Amino acid sequence: MGLCEAAVAAYVKFGDVKKAIDTCVLLNQWNMAVELADKHNFVQIEQLLQRYAQHLIDQNKKIEAIELFRKANKNTDAARLLAEIAQELREKNAPMLLIKKIYVLAAFEVDSFKQRAFDAQVAQITGTATNAADVAAKTMNSLITSDISSSADKQLTNPWKGAEAIHFYLLCQRQLYQKAYPRAMKTAMRLIEYEKELSTKEVYSMVALACFFNNCFRECSKAFVKLERLPGMSKKEREEYEMLAMNLFKLHPPIDRQKREQKCPQKDCNGIINEYDIVCSTCNAHYSPCIASG
């Protein structure tokens, strides 16, 4: 008759929890079904969770599905859904700061999964170890020989990298508006590492702008070459890029006027780098960025 709560109360009082849960599923009262399964340690709760989550996703209630996964400690499922939402918002040209926050939430979920997996490993090792030194040795050996994050990383790409990409993209724009052109160019060159997270067009458009304003026309020319060869571009767009490049480099020869060179800071490396390099061409050392300044 549709009286779900009354029927559930009757079945629970009778002692038939399975029938009570089936009633909730039949009447689409998924939240009540999950609560019942959790309260009475129903053995098929895993299948029930997945069915409820799929029901929510089918109704385009992804946020509710994420909350469900978080309550059930299904961190990787929650992270995957958050990453999907971020990608959908990127396609809709939603505010970049909002997308960055969603990537950060996804990253927290992956980190929670890794921490629980790590704690479980430590607990398992502690149970078989005889002293503190033995625990430390076994834990280190376990971490070296196995990758606790593999099951998470197979399901989604590293969401921290998505957050970093958008962070540096927004930072570069802010530096351009502040007319801090050397800093903007350094940040723009860093964006090249995030071509998979951002589009090639977004990355090299930003690089071209920053290099132009910083009088580094050789690097600007390289960025234009990338833009002119973008896949899927129409003939008209390509001609517009070529015309823009021709007009620009007639006035400004492709020479970098603002580039200071220095010795690679790595020990035992005599390579010469410039201030905008992110990798040494001699020793392949990678220079980590400052999150605040780029």
Short description:
The chain has 294 residues and is an all-alpha fold.
Write the topology of this structure.
Elements: H1 4-14, H2 17-26, H3 30-39, H4 45-58, H5 62-71, H6 75-91, H7 96-128, H8 132-145, H9 150-153, H10 159-177, H11 181-191, H12 200-213, H13 217-228, H14 235-251, E1 261-263, E2 272-274
Antiparallel strand pairs: 1-2
Catalogue the unreliable spans: 143-155
| Total separate domains | 3
**Shape, principal axes of CA atoms:** elongated
The average pLDDT value, as a whole number, equals 85
**Overall number of strands:** 2
Enumerate the strands of the largest sheet in spatial order, edge to edge or round the barrel.
Answer: 1-2
Task: List the helices and strands in order.
Answer: HHHHHHHHHHHHHHEE
Query: Into which percent range does the helicity of residues fall?
Result: 55-70%
Strand content: under 5%
Going by CATH, the architecture of the largest domain would be Alpha Horseshoe
Largest sheet: 2 strands, antiparallel
Q: Calculate the terminal CA-CA distance, rounded to whole Å.
A: 63 Å
Specify the structural class. mainly alpha
